[in-house]
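Complex record, two chains
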Amino acid sequence: MSEKKTVSVETLNEYKGRSLAQETWRRFLKNKGAIVGMAFMILLVILACSGDLIYDFQVDITGFSADLSESPSLDHLFGTDQLGRDIFARVIYGTRYSLIIGVGSVALGLVVGLITGSLAGFYGGFWDQLVMRANDILYSIPNIMLAVVIVQLLGKSIGSLLVALSISSATSFAKITRAAVMTIRGQEYVESAYAMGLPTWKIILKHIIPNCLSPIIVQVTLAIGSNIISASSLSFLGVGVPIPIPEWGTMLAEGRTYIVSEPWMCIFPGLAIMFTVLALNLMGDGLRDALDPKLKR
Amino acid sequence: MIRYVLKRLLFMIPTILLTSLIIFFAMKIAGGDPVKQILPENATVEQQENLREEMGLNDPLVVQYARYMAGLITGDMGESYVTGKDVLQTFMERLPMTLALGGSALIVACIISVPLGIYTALNQNTWKDTTGMVFALFGVSMPNFWLGLMLMLLFAVKWKLLPSQGAEGPEYLVLPALTVGLGLAALITRTTRSAMLDVIRQDYMTTAKAKGASHRRVIYYHGLKNAMIPIVTAIGMQFSLVMTGSALAEVVFSWPGIGRLVFESIDKRDEPMVTGAIILCCILMSIINLVVDLIYAFLDPRIKAQYSNKG
């Protein structure tokens, strides 16, 4: 059971001055894992942006340098492949694709999920039925098959992969938003906003969505991670990013053929995916604890 | 209860109709000209036209869809453009391989995750808990097919303990099942731990302890039984993931299941095979989801009562 703690007036006053966001941020900073995750993500973004400064795209990415199939060394940190492409440089370039696909698909899914989910939760009835039945149908198609169908339809490209992944994120965002909106809809402050004559869209946007943000923010961080994994899986299966592009999954698909002679081609792109997703998961867990301290154990 | 099951089965019909509609049209639009695929390159325009008429490809898409669905009900889903074999039959031949992989992966996952989840929950906030949770976190963050590649690198390439490609005996199942199972285990461990933590704090646990029940009995009889519902829910929710994981593992380890069938058929632009296999997968998923929901009813009388009232 909790011990009795005496809190001085000064500390109380200190708490008073802070907004919810500041309070969340303070709690977030206390979580070591979350800080490590965030630091890693910042480093990754910097590396992704500065790839052009360190490496020559022509030589290191498209290949034909002098060093063919070299094992990892100081010259080539992660080794080179059968075309002399530097794996480290390709992994760094791959960061861009993975981050763009991960963040982009979640952003797209978030917009669709927020709109459909709040419609369903707020109006109920017909809208609720429509959105939830559509969700049921999408849920009965295994994610990977759905993505395959969409990529087949739109052609193999980063754009269609992005759309394919955003659909499965949209369903989970719609579900979370709907549940949150349904609980908040009945609160007194929403009623009073109605009584003051605010238009419905404004009530949803200004009063309801900000109050159901915490589960959504957590889901965003976790969804970026899982979409990065899904994107690389699809690329690995040959229905994602096409082959010469240094996306992590595509690199693994290429490396798989050489797993016996050049295992480093398989090891490093996978490690890159794992640590990126790990960092995102750490951040997500940290955010969840910071946003809702009651859940913390 | 029976009414509930019937209602769910009835609801499956529009779901399957709509899903197959989406998939059928998408694949029709995406697929190339099948006539050019089937006939040799030097076929005359007349030959092509004849075949097109014969296959009904000149009819409007809606008519083609109606014909396809009529075929689906009677079990005729067309023939593969590549092998000429019946689609449904090929699917059914491959299905046991995927079920074997998925089933053994689930067993692996449960054997690892449930005890580990209980253990970490009982040792909450100690180094044992932290170690367990770090492992689970790594497991969740790892792409499953990459784990498969790494297992293959270690056990098949380096130590030469297990075969890496094909399905010629039970030993061929070990690596793919471990791959899919370990990924699932990471997820289920996290759920088991938090479900157990919820249960440990309940009053009836204290009561059981106060009555002098042994530690073992309190944890497994009073605790685990009540923690089972979120755990089974978590496992049930993972079936889509089992399918995805199996598809990837099948490709990595050349395991001749449904997943590999789909991706091989995509490579060969074998449209009836891809369409048929994906539609059948969706039907399979709907059935599995229904079965999972019914299992809850058996585990928890409260849910059963809810079904009966609604039904």
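Note: The first helix of chain B runs from residue 2 to 30.
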